[in-house]
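Q: My labmate handed me this sequence with no annotations at all. I'd like to see what the chain might look like in three dimensions before we decide whether it's worth expressing. Could you predict it?
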Amino acid sequence: QVELVESGGGSVQTGGSLRLSCAASGNTYSIYRLGWFRQAPGKEREAVAAIYTRGGDTYYTDSVKGRFTVSQDDAGNTRYLQMNDLKPEDTAMYYCAAGVIAGMAPLASEKYKYWGQGTQVTVSQ
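A: Here is what I predict for the chain of 125 residues:
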C-alpha cells in the first residue's frame, strides 16, 4: 500500500509558476515510477510527466515540454512537479500517481496503481 498526498496547487496568472509536491508514505520502497496526471471537468485524464525512481529518467507530454520539470527528493519521500510559464490550458486537477510495475510506457495511466486526491491548479489570463 502506498499513500500519496499532493499539495502546492493554487491560482496563478498566465506565465506564472507553481511547484506541486507529492508526499508518499507506506511501502514507498516499492514505487518504480511516479507520474503526474491532470484532469479538467468533462475532459479525459491526461498524463503530463513521469519519473522513474530508480534511475531518475523523466518523461513529459508534448504540451508541457520545456515548461514543466519533474524531480524527486528521496530524503523526504517527496516528488515535485515544477510548473513554469503556465497557460490557461494547464488548468486542471493535478494528481500524482505511483506505479509498482517495472517496464516502459511511463505516461500510461494503467501502469499506475496508487493515486493521490489531487490538487487544483487554475491559470487565468
